[in-house]
Protein 1
Amino acid sequence: MKRFPLPALVLSLICALPLSAFGGGDYPDHDLLTARLKKLASDYPHYVSLESLTQTSGGRDIWLLSLGAGNLADRPAVAVVGGTEGDHLLGTGLALRFAEMLLEESSGEETRRLLENHTFYVFPDMTPDAGAQYFAPLKYERKGNDNSSYTDRYGNEIGHPYRDLNGDGMITLMRVKDPHGDWLPHPDDKRVMVRADKSSGELGEYSLYAEGVDLLKSERWTEAGVNFNMNFSFKFPVFTSGAGDHAVSEKESRAIASFLFEAKNVYAVVSFGPANNLAAPLRYNERDASGRIITGILEGDARINQMVSRKYVDMTGDISGPAVAGSDGDFFQWAYFHYGRHSFSTPGWSFPREASGNESRRSGDERDDCPALLFLRWADEQGMDDIFIPWESVVHPEFPDKEIEVGGISPFAMTNPPREMAEEIARSHYRFIVELAGLRPEIEIRNIKKEELGRGVYRITADVANTGRLPTVTELGERVRWVQKTVIRLETDRGQEALSGNRIEVLGAIEGGKAETRSWLIRGRGTVKIRAGAENTGFDEVTVRL
């Protein structure tokens, strides 16, 4: 019989495979998102700038919402990025609600000061082509954009496996009765399919595929389009379906990368996606961090990740699920390893793994930790009766003599909170990002001393202090050319002479609460100006009269 390999977008619906689904909730489609962004720009013109960085192959705008007052480029900035994966609409909702909540509170003194001294770049949805599938007549979890047909790298057409065989408007799973198959129903919940443990003599009963038919008889499958979260340069997954022909090949990834490389004021990136270093921080690994190509977080940056992670858990209640490392080619890792900024990622929410029905666990059977099983137990406790499509017999045009059923967990269901929880989740993440902004590196020139040494010579001493909690530059950022370092400049009046000390000096990273002391010898009376800072820390300037 023809075989339909399981696509990535349905792997989350079965056991022993990674979660990546999303579902339910009242989330805006691209048109409503656009309308809400334009309303923010209209209602808060003093604080909001809205622009389309590019349009996708599907004709949808990649929006950038810049928030702040005055010259945004000279103030420390956080980039907030939603929709890093097309099946994660919650991320888009969290990014959008962050901007709306911030502006709703802009009349308050504290928020007003924040907007006058800080910049936020909000990219609410980087995958609008894929996200549109959530609102389409045929709903299935999709990650690729519209920039492809179903072809392989040689231009050969590949059969599309999806066909709504039971007419419910959703693509779920298709199980085929097969004595040589690898799958069988879970002993504790017949709705869930698990792999047979053949090492213990267990026999499979079914083969498992995506719901559909192989119209072109190709026996091959690939997802249409390119996945934004596989298209970046760090560990780019060459020759992998969905990654693109080369790193940053897509309009969406080029648009955000080009903007951020020019945005020298960004010190941190918060992205909503499957990676999760906020539930638990990344750990320092000397081997990975010391190689010719660095693939592990550096020690100082790991300490910062730990500090920020503690704040996140305290403020959100640790609702985002277990820690998850980044995947090859993803945006989260690019933002740290190649962009050099603090990079924080979270899915925003995950269903509780410890459902009360888990006491029936059989000793030693890892399948009792199956995400699909735990999710259904939790959903049952919550009274959610619309998230599982019961297995239903269907007639398949290619296998008329086979016993075939279609069913499974509804697309997008496993990582979206119940509707009544969504607003509070958005509120807690809003508070966290505002708290993160409060940790920003900030340069202040302090402890200025002047001494008259005689014969018209003066010594000036000053501390260049970082009054924030975050360092002025990440440890990795000190090695990356795209990260602005703190610069201290000395300007003298005509007739004055600098006898010692650098007129211009680039400083290394200054840790939070620490300072660098510098001194100069100046001959001649007049005015001396000292200016220090960078776009990602802000600038300070003092005048000393001699």
Protein 2
Amino acid sequence: MRPRAWIVRGMLLLAVLGGVAAAGWAWWTRSGRAADAIVLGRAALDRGDRDEAARLARQRLKAEPQDPDALRLLARISYQQGRDDVALALFNRLGAEALQPEDRYFLGLALARSGKLQSAMRVWQGDGKTGAQTRTPAILVELVRGYFRRDELDEASRTAETLLRRPGWESQALALLGMIALQLNDPGRAADYWLRSERFEPSPTSTSLRLEIAPMDLARALLRVGRVREATDQLRKVLDHGPDPEASWLMGRVHLQQKDWSAARADLEAASAYREANPMARDPGPYVGSASCAPCHNREYRSQQASRHSRTFFRDVDLARLELPESPVRDPSDSTVVHKLVRSQDGLVHQQTEADGKVFEAVVRYAFGSGDRGLTPVGRDANGRAYELRISDYPECHGDDSAGRPVARWDITAGHPRTPRKPEEYLGRPLTENQVRRCLFCHVTDIKAAVDRTGPCGMDRGIGCERCHGPGGNHLLAIEGKLVELDPAIARPTHTSGAPIVKLCGQCHSPRGITVARDDPAAPRFQATTLTWSRCYTESQNALDCTTCHDPHRNASTSKPDYEVRCLECHSPADRARLPAALSRPQNHAMRLDANRTVCPVNPSTGCIDCHMPTVAGIVPHSTFTDHNIRVHRD
């Protein structure tokens, strides 16, 4: 019996081993097939067969729903097919811990394309110290683009410099640095970056993200700094392939700057179609300053220089005549906090804020505002850090408020918290260099000239002629060459209407970097935005814009009847021939009167502004704004 028992046990053992071997073979086969499916899927994607790659990935996911390789493969394919919602869902199933650098790249792209740039930037930036280590060159490219879109040019520049140190990516980095320099209004440096970028051959892995610089964009930058020979080389790349109106338009600027009047005439005649189609195009020439406009446009120059637009910016040396408070100013939210504004022997203004037993100090470097309604100082502390100072000057504040309390001329700056979180924040709101630059953008013609105090625009104290008309250097040459009738070589806002004008004014009279909701109480502060919400604008067939009611060379009128005349131009029951002579308009802004125009049933002849464009207080201290969302106010 014993030998037979061993035989039986041996047979059982062989059976068990055979089962294990069979199971192992089956597992190995399935695993191998799974690996083969992913390998084949990647190969299909590499050769452009997305449908086959997606089929293989789905096949694997049917067997293993959480297979990470199949999830990331299908997610990337979904992004490339434009199915961002599917891609985002698949990346979410994959989980943050399993994301590889390439996954983060595609996940960020899907988020950005879905309008979620903030989330995309967080994905590309990564977490903590490991984030920088896992940023691939492709991710760095997208980070630069993202910072650029958010107008965070300091971060964009630093990230592009990091990319520049990655072998094979120099061309892309230099192209991006040029784009940033141009946004900083430094065309010479932009051109240098772009010309350097052409010397580098991208690596095979970076070719798909090669940022090509259009020859005409490079020519524009070169012409702005008078480098005509190099600009000519770029334009020849285009014109050698056949006629091009825009290239001829730019070649005309080359010949203007060379004072070759006959060649300039031929080019400008060839470019007439482009010139007429683009009246708002900023001419690629040097700035010459507002004073250069006075000899020919003296009336407009004098009225513009007398307007608040022309004095929206004060440097530290311009504040010598600023009327400082005679006694310390107690903070409106905490009477124990005291602000002193004093002038030192060198004439500079200092703000000293005493809070929680400590004194915080900053030297005023700039002041923003016209000085009529408000003036907000920006200073730097001993470490060079910038602050929007907490106390602003409101010159129009006199007398008592509605409760009979005296109104202080120096009061809390708009947007500051009533009660700061830290004692040092009573000095002011810390600003990044990007934020300082954004302040300058809306208060000067040329940021670089204003800060460096160089060039003709450095003499402008605020918004000058060239902010809306573009650099005037080529315009002066066109006058000298008697070509101005053929092409004035300057932007001409009077030759267009509607959206382009609103966009131009909206550079400063719309919010930057944020979206304002229609029910936001602060919305009336942004006139160029709120105007576009009104039916008067949307149904005007591109005829209504800011200059319909406002002369940009003068301060806005405070006379409501002046504006009501404009309202009645469309909403009067009378025929156009019977309207008063004051309703005559420049031809380019002539409003269409059709049979379906609306006539006010309450008061068809007056009171338009009070009812449909009321003034709103409380958005900014001691200021009111007219609501440009023209509508019936049901309340």
